[in-house]
Amino acid sequence: SLRDNRGDKVPVDFRVRANSVAPRLIWVTEQRVLGGSLAFHALVPLVDLKVTVNGQSQSKQGLGDIIFGPALGFHHSEKLHSILALDFIAPSGEYDGGDLANIGRNYWVIEPVLAVSFVDPNGLNVDAKTMYDFNLRNDATDYRSG
User: Fold this and answer.
1) In a 10 Å sphere around its CB, with 0-12 CB exposed, 13-18 middle and 19+ buried, how is residue 60 labelled?
2) What Cα–Cα distance (Å) separates residue 103 from each residue in 37, 47, 48?
3) What is the CA radius of gyration of the chain?
4) Tens digits of residue pLDDT in 19-48
5) Euclidean distance between CA atoms 42 and 25, whole angstroms
6) Class of residue 98 by CB neighbours under 10 A (exposed 0-12, middle 13-18, buried 19+)
7) CB of 99 within 8 A of CB of 58?
8) Which residues pair with 86 in a beta bridge?
9) Measured at the alpha carbon of residue 38, what is the angle toward residues 36 and 43, in degrees to the nearest 5?
10) What is the reported pLDDT for 98?
């Protein structure tokens, strides 16, 4: 349910159905940089979105915002691994400021990423991933999110 600033329920009938297939292509090169394996990746989401607000409905299908970037993969030991990456989110998905449903954000995002994994063959796995988004301005709304 939607809530206002006091936590009271807002009388808005709001529903979203989102389905996505998001293949990720990863290329790990033979190149070593600062002791890590240089890699590149791209995530290409195919989105099916339906938004309903107070009886009005809109659907969109197509390519969402593509994520891509370089990464360095480190293998500190047989069990401890980490990745340092710089992702870019491109405004490739369809966007219209007046639409209910948008499969794109219409602005670029720069996203540093740090992920760490501890993988024990005896069964203990612990993973952590930290990201921070630097959102650029949406030219259609002249607004900068976040």
Assistant:
1) buried
2) 33, 7, 8
3) 19
4) 999 999 999 999 999 999 999 999 999 999
5) 5
6) exposed
7) yes
8) 112
9) 125
10) 86
Per DSSP, what are the bridge partners of residue 33? 36
pTM, two decimal places: 0.82
Q: Which single residue is written with the structure tokens 């409905």?
A: 57
pLDDT for 101-132, tens place per residue? 899 999 999 999 999 999 998 889 999 999 99
- Rounded to whole angstroms, the Cα distance separating 64 from 109 reads 14
Q: Is-contact 2 15, C-beta < 8 A?
A: no
Question: Checking phi first, is residue 97 left (phi over 0); if not, alpha (psi -120 to 50) or beta?
Answer: alpha
Residue 51, both tokens = 């938004």
Mean pLDDT over the full length of the chain:
93
Q: What is the DSSP string of 8-30?
A: PBP---EEEEEEEE--EEEEEEE
